[in-house]
């Protein structure tokens, strides 16, 4: 069983952009969403995965991810009733870690979130100068929440975190 330890942050500036080493377009949908468990299908270029997260919308939870045929992923995504999450993921190295920065499109356009995955909850890391407020504990910033209530529906106050 794999543990995901992930923290989420808003961005304070675009100063990260020149440091991105790669990027990838992602499309994902949720085929199951229970109070503490979600099942997601994701496609990117010629790759596809199914992902199961258990433990709720918290920094630490159980995560299982498996490659699946792209054709299977397309069938599963076609069955999703909620809108898909469309985003570009950028990878930015900083302070010995690789940050993942998700730039959302569609109903979530305008939202940009940085994530760092850690091997241990107590692991310390250097905060990049382009990082803003931490939003790990705010459920509305989780992808499964963005399907139910996209960023375009948030109030100005909610957008300020």
Structure overview:
This protein is mostly beta strands and 161 residues long. The chain has one domain (2-159): Hypothetical Protein Pfu-838710-001, CATH 2.40.320.10. Helix content is 12%, strand content 46%. The protein has 3 helices and 9 strands; from the N terminus they run βββββαββββαα. An 8-stranded antiparallel barrel has the order 1-5-4-3-2-6-7-8. A hairpin with a 2-residue loop joins strand 3 and strand 4 (47-54). It is globular and about 40 Å long. The mean pLDDT is 93.
What is this structure, in a nutshell?
The protein has helices at 70-78, 143-148, 156-159, and strands at 2-11, 22-33, 37-44, 47-54, 60-67, 85-94, 97-104, 112-117, 131-134. It has 161 residues and is mostly beta strands.
Task: Give the averaged pLDDT, no decimals.
Answer: 93
Beta-strand percentage? over 45%
Form type: globular
What's the CATH superfamily, by name?
A: Hypothetical Protein Pfu-838710-001
Percentage of residues assigned to helices: 10-25%
SSE sequence, one letter per element? EEEEEHEEEEHH
What is the total number of structural domains? 1
- Terminus-to-terminus distance: 32 Å
- Per DSSP E runs of 2 or more residues, the count of β-strands stands at 9
Radius of gyration: 15 Å
Q: Top keywords for this entry?
A:
single chain; 161 residues; mainly beta; Hypothetical Protein Pfu-838710-001; eight-stranded antiparallel beta barrel; 9 strands; 12% helix; 46% strand
Question: Helices, strands, pairings?
Answer:
Elements: E1 2-11, E2 22-33, E3 37-44, E4 47-54, E5 60-67, H1 70-78, E6 85-94, E7 97-104, E8 112-117, E9 131-134, H2 143-148, H3 156-159
Antiparallel strand pairs: 1-5, 1-8, 1-9, 2-3, 2-6, 3-4, 4-5, 6-7, 7-8
